[in-house]
């Protein structure tokens, strides 16, 4: 299997959308795997779990808000 390396920077909203999409696809794959879909969907579930784990494995803050409340 050929391996590629990608670097992608996502903001919080983008991470939320990617997580939701992957979890939605995983639910679909689990449903397909329990029916006639079989093997490809089972392996997709393992890949989705790996991607979700890596998505949150090492987050780094790249900016902060400079907004502050004054009394």
Estimated share of beta-strand residues: under 5%
Percent helix, as a range, is 55-70%
Low-pLDDT residue intervals, each spanning 5 or more residues = none
How many strands, what sense, and barrel or not for the largest sheet?
A: none
Shape: elongated
Structural class: mainly alpha
Overall pLDDT score: 89
| N-to-C span | 59 Å
As a whole number of angstroms, the C-alpha radius of gyration is 17 Å
How many helices?
2
Number of strands: 0
Helices and strands, in order, run as: HH
Could you characterize the architecture of this molecule?
By secondary structure, this protein is mostly helical. The chain has a domain at 12-55. Helix content is 59%, strand content 0%. The chain contains two helices and no strands. The protein has helices at residues 12-34, 39-57. Helix 1 (12-34) runs antiparallel to helix 2 (39-57).
